[in-house]
Amino acid sequence: MADWLLLIPWNQIFTAACGCFLSDRNYIHLMESNLDALQTTIEELKNRRDDLLGRVSIEEDKGLQRLAQVKGWLSSVESVESQFNDLLQARSTETGRLCLFGYCSEDFISSYNYGDKVSKMLEKVELLSRRDFEVVAQKIIRKAEKKHIQTTVGLDTLVGIAWESLKNDDIRTLGLYGMGGVGKTTLLASINNKFLELESEYDVVIWVVVSNDLQYEGIQDQILGRLSLDMEWERETENKKASLINNILNRKRFVLLLDDLWSEVDLSRIGVPTQENGSKIVFTTRSTEVCNHMRVDKQIKVDCLSPDEAWKLFQITVGDVISGGHRQDISALARIVAAKCDGLPLALNVIGKAMACKETIQEWLHAIYVLNSLGYEFPGMDERILPILKFSYDSLKNGEIKSCFLYCSLFPEDFEIEKEKLIEYWICEGFINPNRYEDGGTNQGYDIIGLLVRAHLLIDCELTDKVKLHDVIREMALWINSDFGNQEGTICVKSGAHVRLIPNDINWEIVRQMSLIHTLIKKISCSPNCPNLSTLLLSGSLRLVDISVGFFRFMPKLVVLDLSGNSWLRNLPEEISNLGSLQYLNLSRTMIKSLPVGLKKLKKLIYLNLESTRVHESLVGIAAAFPNLQVLKLFDSEVCVDDILMEELQHLEHLKILTANIEDATILERIQGIDRLASSIRGLCLRNMSAPRVILSTIALGGLQQLQIERCYISEIKIDWKSKERRELSPMEIHPSTSSPGFKQLSNVRIFGLRGQRDLSWLLFAPNLKKLQVGNSREIEEIINKEKGMSITKVHPDILLPFGNLESLNLFLLSNLTEVCWNYRTLPNLREISVRDCPKLPEDIANFLRLAEK
Ligand SMILES: *[C@@H]1O[C@H](CO)[C@@H](O)[C@H](O)[C@H]1NC(C)=O
Ligand SMILES: *[C@@H]1O[C@H](CO)[C@@H](O)[C@H](O)[C@H]1NC(C)=O
Ligand SMILES: *[C@@H]1O[C@H](CO)[C@@H](O)[C@H](O)[C@H]1NC(C)=O
Ligand SMILES: *[C@@H]1O[C@H](CO)[C@@H](O)[C@H](O)[C@H]1NC(C)=O
Ligand SMILES: *[C@@H]1O[C@H](CO)[C@@H](O)[C@H](O)[C@H]1NC(C)=O
């Protein structure tokens, strides 16, 4: 006992006895001032955090991912914050205990500990505050991207063989070869998906589409696009790109999947490391020679299906007519037709679809007759298959549909074509009826696309409004266009990154449709004679800066001119005025600031697209200049609808489709009063608008598909669904869905920087909304407010639940958001979700939404 006493310094015994503490490290005395300091520092810390989150969010919008250090820092801040809140809660108790001007406490131990905590936390917070981040985010490199796979028969065995080979350490390069249409890409896609499923030991799986007209740089660009943190490499030389690739891949175990090699490629020239490091290279090719030149460690032949497998696939493809089994007679003939396809999956698919609707014996007999009498003789398998595939082309009902199909071959291999675009081209080319419905619809175009997709001549790209051609089918189209290889075709395709100059082997005299898409041409300085040219696709060239005087000199029949996506193009030559037949002009996503005066001479123009350009001039005179204009797109350009433009637009008698920007609330109101004009609006961007109240009429704006609200201060957004008496119904309005109110077509809404709104319950009036982005609007507390929502659904029983069709939801920088919608747990179609920097959104909602992501 005595020993123990001796070990305690006197002053402590004294202070312990009276509950006071007088030394210079007096936590108790400093407690209050430390608490105040702590509070200030925490506020500063929170501000720093908010600033950082703002920066992070900008980076994340570009597709980058926040750094681990940033994540760690943010979570430290969060935990400090919650500790601080605990301290605050205990504050009144602790300060209440203080006595003797704050030098002593009634409960010394507790106060001492408390003071100690406050002081330690202060140090910690100061330390955290001092942390500075120069870089906050980096690019996410996903391990692999899932590929879609169609119905297959008998593929599993091959996938198994390939997979076993890849497990073998001695096999680094694997070649898959076989004829076009045999299913090589599908096999490669299965391998890709297997890497994805198995969380294997590879760092990254890179898929590259090679195709015929692609060269080294094209391959490098795809690899760098997948691997690199920024786009700074874009303008580098081939050598520089190679060393970049080499640098990155050297540090990884990678799988490189090259689809469709046409000839040997020198991997080291691309930058792919050559030394052994467990990495794998798998490619597909039509030729065994490529396998040999590439010095594969193993090659696998992708063979046609056995007769049994072929028959099975054919049955699945044709469907009811034979698989029902009740038509023995047809079934027997079907076996003969299937046999004609030689076990080639592509042919079985295409011919199978052509026969799917044939229910009489006569039709099947006719098919056998046609397939038997094919007169073309070709040496190789590939060439032999084209005539067989041509059977399905011949089965197309009429010349217009055939033209529509052949037109698709203008796009580069593997190119995904927007349906809407394709249809506009077809209209101008005169393949389909140019008369739109009153609502601007072009159902005939969609009808033909559907027909070609069902015939397996076009592939529907899932979840997008795009289609593409199988490369063999595309070859067939070009082959048909060239009169079965006997002469030069009138369709000319010179697209891709290897084209840097206008090729000099183009026969401009005979060409009707010309495609120079996605080239690297910088300057066009020729002046060709093109008596029959009707379509010129010159879009998506990243380098094109100049089109010289002379180029458009003689193209008297040109109807379609697409210059969109040439992001460096600033000017158009004046002589564009020579294009007297022009109907379609797409300049969107160019840098063009002002339009040539001569443009106004193009009296036949029916389609003009200036979206996302810098064009800012007033469009006065447009009505007189383009009396036939049906489509005018101005969304996201600098052109704003004002009184004068509104007046002009009213004089465009045939205008059916309009996208526009509006900054003035009174203009918005007035335009909705002009029936014909309002109903043509497909896209509307309200920007920089300040108004106590904005009314959007579901009837007037019945065709609205895309709405953007940007930098606006609007206190009330009101949806008017009944202002107009029901007029006499036009045929389009008898559609059953018109019975309920709402923006039926509205599928895409983006809201940025909106002030004055606490909820967006009016979105209930967009029952078919697919894509919603809301960001940077700190006053928004709820997307859909339950009470308001319920009261809307009460009045309109056919508006049931919010967001029944929503596929993609993106919420960011909404600092007051606490609720999305009451039924967030049961959104049936939601596939893509991103929720960022919505600090008040309860964790369970945010987590649930993230988990729901499929
Ligand atoms: C091999 O790959 C691993 C990654 O899996 C990497 O860490 C290592 O540096 C690589 N080694 C060589 C010699 O490239
Ligand atoms: C016009 O070009 C833009 C940009 O390339 C494209 O998105 C759009 O579909 C084109 N419009 C049509 C209808 O061709
Ligand atoms: C242009 O088209 C017309 C009509 O189809 C055709 O008769 C003529 O031969 C074509 N001109 C050339 C140079 O091919
Ligand atoms: C928005 O309006 C303000 C004033 O009304 C103006 O100064 C500003 O330039 C406008 N911003 C844009 C992007 O138009
Ligand atoms: C939340 O909204 C209120 C007004 O509704 C606003 O004053 C406040 O600044 C918002 N909070 C944040 C963190 O932005």
From TrEMBL:
Residues 1-19 form the signal peptide. Residues 28-62 form a coiled coil. GO terms for molecular function: ADP binding; ATP binding; hydrolase activity. Keywords: ATP-binding, Coiled coil, Hydrolase, Leucine-rich repeat, Nucleotide-binding, Plant defense, Repeat, Signal. Residues 159-319 form the NB-ARC domain. Residues 410-477 form the Disease resistance protein winged helix domain. One of its GO terms (biological process) is defense response. The keyword Lipoprotein does not apply. Residues 511-694 form the Disease resistance R13L4/SHOC-2-like LRR domain. Belongs to the disease resistance NB-LRR family. This is P-loop containing nucleoside triphosphate hydrolase. The lineage of its organism: Eukaryota, Viridiplantae, Streptophyta, Embryophyta, Tracheophyta.
